[in-house]
Design brief:
48% of the residues lie in helices and 1% in strands. The protein is globular, with a radius of gyration of 21 Å. The protein has two domains: 219 residues, Serine Threonine Protein Phosphatase 5, Tetratricopeptide repeat; 117 residues, no CATH class.
Length: 377
């Protein structure tokens, strides 16, 4: 397993704490002004903070759908319910149709009870704010938990509490939000929510930054065993989620690319199964291995893509000869076969090229995913 970016302990590592503190200092004053302007003189602001803390640590369970056949067949429900701040049951599962793993994958694809956009009242305030990309509210809450004398147990609850039947932590929720558009069928907005959104647009990349700096685990897993990188590169991946994926790999290392879920699928294998050639291109540019075998070990990913009829994925895998590590995003050649040093994209720093010619050639494809790392890391 990959260690978290910010190892556990009594407090945050100094670099992460320093980085977070700079942002907190800028937002706390504004947050206090907001509270003062919305609370009457008779209200006790300290009671509001206490109520928020009680909500985050409370024992009230959002519907976990524990009697659903897909969950009953694939999970030790007792273990998962008891482990509210951990990964729960992560036993490997077979993935063929009709198997416990296949049924669980279909259940997760349908969303389970994960509905922080359509039914936000079901979730804790912090979790909902992460899903909605409310960076200001997220950082204000983290400020209370990371302040001198803060409660380490509360911080862990904020960062790792699992919600919905899919057992997603806040980091997964923020990535889910990065794949939705406010006002769409997946994210309906009433009039009040539209006015709120108009005052502060969602910034899921910044929410991810705050969560990771505060110590959120980059290898945290949901009920299917998907990590945050799996979530970024799922079948419904967006340009924003792929930009976050690049930063996660930069922060957590290339080992994140090799982490399988409970079905044995890495993020690249999931992208091949879903036919997302653009996601395959992105992961290969981040250093994944085009020669990785399918989860069953019976053939290569190229064979699997061909069998599934994903011609664009086959082409993406063929453009890069088998080579682990960084490679030119345009021609797919490893550095030892061309120039000794690869040139990083000047903006996102997440993809590399062996020449400026290759960079210009690849720009139309890379442009939708190119996001400056300062927005996330």
């Amino acid at each position: 397993m990959i260690p978290s970016v910010a190892p556990g302990g009594d407090g945050l590592p100094n670099p992460a704490a320093d980085q977070l503190a700079k942002t907190l200092a800028r937002t706390l004053a504004a947050r206090q002004e907001d509270v003062a302007s919305t609370v009457s003189e008779d209200d006790d602001v300290s009671d509001l903070a206490a109520n928020l803390k009680e909500e985050q640590l409370g024992a009230t369970l959002e519907s976990l759908d524990v009697e659903h056949p897909a969950l009953a067949r694939s999970c030790d429900v007792v273990v998962s319910v008891a482990d509210r701040h951990g990964d729960g049951d992560q036993r490997p599962l077979p993935s063929f149709p009709g198997s416990p793993g296949g049924a669980l994958a279909a259940y997760c694809a349908g969303g389970g009870t994960f509905q922080p956009f359509a039914r936000p009242a079901r979730y804790t305030h912090f979790f909902k704010c992460c899903a909605w990309g409310d960076a200001r509210e997220v950082v204000a809450t983290l400020a209370s938990a990371t302040a001198p004398g803060g409660d380490a147990a509360w911080l862990r609850s904020l960062l790792e509490r699992r919600e919905s039947s899919l057992r997603k932590p806040p980091l997964h929720a923020a990535i889910a939000g990065a794949k939705c558009l406010p006002g769409s069928d997946a994210w309906p907005l009433d009039d009040a929510q539209q006015r709120t959104m108009a005052r502060a647009l969602p910034d899921h990349a910044l929410v991810v930054q705050f969560l990771v700096d505060a110590g959120a685990r980059l290898d945290a897993r949901d009920v299917l065993g998907d990590t945050p990188l799996h979530a970024c590169c799922a079948a419904n991946a967006s340009a924003r989620s792929l930009a976050i994926a690049g930063v996660l790999v930069k922060r957590g290392g290339a080992g994140l690319l090799a982490e399988p879920n409970r079905l044995g699928y890495t993020p690249l294998q999931c992208a091949v199964h879903s036919g997302r050639a653009d996601v395959v291109d992105w992961l290969l540019a981040l250093g994944d291995d085009a020669d990785r075998r399918d989860a069953g070990g019976a053939g290569t990913l190229k064979d699997l893509a061909a069998a599934l009829g994903h011609g664009a994925v086959v082409a993406a895998l063929e453009r890069r000869p088998g080579a682990c590590g960084a490679a030119c995003a345009a021609c797919r050649r490893a550095p030892e076969t061309r120039e000794p040093n690869l040139l990083a994209c000047g903006r996102c720093k997440a993809v590399h090229y062996c020449s400026r010619k290759c960079q210009r050639k690849h720009w139309p494809q890379h442009k939708p995913h190119c996001t400056a790392p300062s927005g996330v890391a």
